[in-house]
Design goal:
Layout lengths: L2 E4 L6 E4 L1 H10 L2 E2 L2 E2 L9 H9 L8 E4 L6 E4 L12 H5 L18 H11 L7 E2 L8 E4 L5 E7 L5 E7 L2 E10 L2 E10 L2 E10 L2 E10 L5 E4 L7 E2 L2 E2 L2 H11 L3 H17 L2 E3 L3 E2 L2 E9 L2 E10 L2 E36 L5 E10 L8 E4 L8 E4 L2 E2 L2 H17 L20 H5 L4 H6 L16 E4 L17 E4 L6 E2 L3 H10 L8 H10 L7 E4 L6 E4 L8 E3 L1 H8 L1
Parallel strand pairs: 7-8, 8-9, 9-10, 10-11, 11-12, 12-13, 13-14, 14-15, 18-32, 19-20, 20-21, 21-22, 22-23, 23-24, 24-25, 27-28
Antiparallel strand pairs: 1-2, 3-4, 5-6, 16-17, 25-26, 28-29, 30-31
Length: 559
């Protein structure tokens, strides 16, 4: 029978299911014939997510120097960080060995304090940015070309200011988009082309201001329509009328604001919503789930099965409490991972059976290690034989039980980053004094000095992009909302001109924040379908004004 527990941090009750207990039993390691049982968590799912997110600085990047060569680098570690940071090339070279920082386990101290000391000694890579071609300002990224400030992004080209992006081309200001081209200000869109200001759309093209549309082309201001062409305000229109409106919109900030207001009005009038987006799925709860089955509380998950409490990733099997993953199996309480059998790890790839490790690659059977590559049977970066490893590890686990560390992910105060630098601040925002009072780090934001001819409020820009000279590339624009300065890069300006878009009047971080706000929270409530009264779980809170339908009733409405 499920049992209730009280979150150690928030004090709120949460449920521990029978399936959860079976999973903890399943992933508990067996060492020398004895199972070292992993206990149930002491934090609720939301606080466990917050804790993992506090170890992931996606978007706050700094210019600094390598601690090895003094070379100028881009890094997610600010200049006064206590960590040793090498350039990407230096870190991945064979000119240094992380085993030289190894130390024996001290049974008079907590494991986490020893791990923190090791973290601060072992050199770190400046970013997670692999196989980048002209994409130096990208993070948590693989195989991007000609990209700028995109994060959690793989296989993109000529794209800028994006988060959670896979296989896009010529995309700007986008979030969770896959296989798209020529898209702008799009959220949760898949296989779309020439699409602007859209959310939750599949296979749409030549359109703008769409929401929850499938197979729609050459249409404007539509919600919840399927396989339509030349539609306007959810009604049939003509190719001539659509072309006329597109021409009026071209490059005009005034017209953009007018259309944006009409879109908001349409959303309020068309207040029917599906309880959850789950496409090609079976037996799932959560939102934005694709081609998955047997998922409990999953968000933004692709091609996964038999998992719970996970978000942002694809290809997970038998994983609980994982975040930002790509091809994982039998993993628990880990973030930024690719591999098998991880427990309580971060930034580890192509490895198996790691415990409490950080930034280890192509390793096996390691515990409490940092920055290792191609190693096996190591503890705190010290090499052991298999026999020695299996003899000392149960003693360490027993010590961690006594210090209440075993079975819990790293505490937030061990994060390499300040809380407000991380995704935790985006999804669980706190004020400066709240962060400090909890014993977590705060880093005062600062604007990087930029040499430009002048500063101009974005509100003073000419209305039409075509009338704005190339000299704008030398200006600092002042964000209308936050007053923070930002600049337009050359490739970005060319994109706006080619796509007939106005110059954005908001700082990139503010644009990102507003996109996030348009998505529902990663929280589930019980509601009844507004049509058939079937009980369902949804990310729409009970007090919201939308009419929320189960999948069966919703499909009857849109088809």
């Amino acid at each position: 029978m499920p049992r209730n527990a009280i979150c150690k941090l928030s004090g709120i009750p949460f449920e521990i299911r029978d399936e959860d207990l079976l999973f903890y039993e399943k992933i508990s390691p067996i060492i020398r014939g004895k199972k070292e049982v992993i206990p149930p968590p002491v934090l609720c799912p939301e606080e466990r997510e917050r804790r993992r997110l506090a170890f992931r600085n996606e978007r706050i990047l700094y210019r600094r120097k390598s601690n090895l060569s003094g070379a100028e680098i881009i890094s997610f570690f600010h200049t006064d960080t206590p960590f040793v940071v090498y350039s990407h090339k230096e870190w991945w070279s064979d000119d240094w060995d992380a085993l030289t920082y190894g130390r024996a386990f001290d049974f008079t101290c907590s494991f986490f304090s020893q791990f923190q000391n090791l973290q601060r000694a072992v050199p770190r890579a400046p970013l997670v940015n692999n196989n980048a071609v002209n994409a130096e300002f990208c993070n948590f990224s693989d195989d991007n070309k000609n990209c700028y400030l995109i994060t959690s992004a793989n296989y993109n080209e000529d794209s800028y200011f994006g988060f959670c992006a896979v296989k896009n081309r010529n995309a700007v200001d986008f979030l969770w988009c896959t296989d798209c081209e020529l898209v702008y200000e799009c959220i949760d869109c898949r296989k779309c082309y020439d699409l602007k200001y859209a959310q939750d759309c599949d296979d749409c093209h030549g359109s703008a201001y769409l929401a929850d549309c499938r197979g729609v082309s050459d249409s404007l201001l539509c919600i919840g329509i399927r396989q339509k062409k030349n539609w306007l305000l959810n009604k049939p229109s003509s190719a001539e009328e659509i072309a006329r409106l597109k021409n009026e919109m071209r490059g005009s900030e005034t017209k953009r604001r007018e259309m944006a207001q009409k879109f908001e009005d349409l959303k309020r009038a068309h207040a029917i919503r599906i309880a959850a987006t789950a496409i090609g799925c079976e037996n799932v709860t959560g939102n934005n789930l694709f081609d998955s089955r047997n998922i409990h509380r999953g968000f933004d998950v692709y091609s996964s099965r038999d998992c719970a409490y996970l978000h942002d990733g694809l290809g997970a099997t038998d994983c609980f409490d994982v975040s930002f993953f790509d091809g994982t199996e039998l993993c628990y309480e880990s973030t930024s991972l690719m591999g098998y059998g991880y427990r309580f790890t971060m930034y580890c790839r192509d490895s198996r059976d790691l415990f409490y490790c950080d930034s280890c690659h192509s390793c096996e059977d390691c515990f409490g290690c940092v920055g290792l590559r191609r190693k096996k049977y190591c503890i705190l970066n010290r090499q052991y034989s298999q026999h020695e490893y299996e003899m000392i590890l149960p003693k360490i686990i027993d010590h961690m039980r006594k210090t209440n560390e075993w079975g819990e992910f790293f505490p937030i105060d061990l994060s390499p980053f300040a809380y407000n630098e991380t995704l935790a601040q985006e999804y669980f925002p706190l004020a400066n004094n709240e962060i400090i009072s909890r014993g977590w780090k705060w880093h005062e934001p600062s604007e990087e000095n930029q040499t430009m001819h002048r500063t101009i409020p974005a509100s003073k820009l000419p209305d039409l992009t075509d009338t704005i000279p190339n000299d704008i590339l030398n200006w600092a624009l002042e964000c209308e909302a936050t007053k923070r300065p930002y600049k337009i890069i050359r490739q970005e300006l060319e994109f706006y001109r080619n796509m007939g878009l106005p110059i954005p009047h908001l700082h990139p971080n503010e644009r990102h924040r507003r996109r996030l706000v348009l998505r529902n929270p990663r929280k589930l409530w019980k509601r009844n379908c507004a049509k058939c009264s079937k009980e369902m779980q949804t990310t729409y809170a009970p007090g919201r004004e939308e009419s929320v339908l189960c999948e069966t009733c919703y499909l009857k409405e849109v088809y």
